[in-house]
């Protein structure tokens, strides 16, 4: 797919909104189906909060808002390509290379569908090869945290397909925490709460959890 004119001019937002139609974990038996728009929202919230820790506590010079928006757009190509499962996507190096090229061409085509005067400001958020490495690292950490939380939810619902996914994602999450102080701070202060049931998140009038 080398024809960068394949997307109708002005269709960028329409493609992004179609992410709500793309299912994730589509080869797994889940208690409910998560779509890419839901996932991207979760990743954006997590990435933004991690970046806030980075700026406030650790003196990072990145912009949390930019990181949040990079997270919103990090799966943009899936609006056209759908969600490819990791075991298939990374099964063979030659296939991975081709698929990454397909993702890149899709991202470029989406940017070309925008008005020329705003393409530049979005290219560095949508085209993954142009995303700042520091921003990409935070978004990737948030991406893996989001996937881990989804796996936790599914395991809690007795979906055995997600037991191994939960274990693998937890290892990835811990590795991000070891590498980035701001990720570790997020994990220490927020992660456990994200796995609690509704009533446990509400305080009684005496200040204790319900």
From TrEMBL:
<dbReference type="InterPro" id="IPR003607">
    <property type="entry name" value="HD/PDEase_dom"/>
</dbReference>
<protein>
    <submittedName>
        <fullName>5'-deoxynucleotidase</fullName>
    </submittedName>
</protein>
<dbReference type="Pfam" id="PF12917">
    <property type="entry name" value="YfbR-like"/>
</dbReference>
<feature type="domain" description="HD/PDEase">
    <location>
        <begin position="32"/>
        <end position="157"/>
    </location>
</feature>
């Amino acid at each position: 797919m080398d024809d960068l004119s394949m997307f109708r001019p002005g269709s960028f937002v329409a493609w992004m909104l179609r992410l709500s139609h793309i299912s994730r974990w589509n080869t797994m038996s889940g208690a409910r189906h998560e779509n890419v728009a839901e996932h991207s929202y979760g990743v954006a919230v997590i990435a933004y909060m991690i970046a806030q820790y980075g700026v406030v506590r650790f003196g990072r010079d990145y912009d949390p808002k930019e990181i949040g928006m990079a997270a919103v757009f990090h799966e943009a190509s899936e609006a056209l390509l759908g969600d490819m499962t990791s075991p298939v996507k990374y099964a063979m190096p030659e296939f991975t290379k081709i698929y990454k090229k397909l993702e890149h061409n899709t991202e470029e085509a989406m940017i070309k569908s925008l008005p020329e005067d705003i393409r530049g400001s979005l290219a560095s958020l949508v085209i993954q090869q142009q995303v700042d490495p520091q921003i990409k690292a935070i978004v990737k950490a948030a991406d893996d945290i989001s996937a881990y939380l989804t796996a936790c939810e599914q395991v809690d619902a007795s979906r055995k397909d997600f037991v191994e996914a939960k274990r693998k994602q937890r290892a990835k999450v811990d590795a991000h925490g070891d590498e980035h102080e701001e990720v570790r701070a997020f994990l220490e202060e927020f992660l456990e709460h994200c796995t609690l049931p509704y009533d446990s998140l509400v305080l009684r009038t005496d200040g204790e959890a319900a």
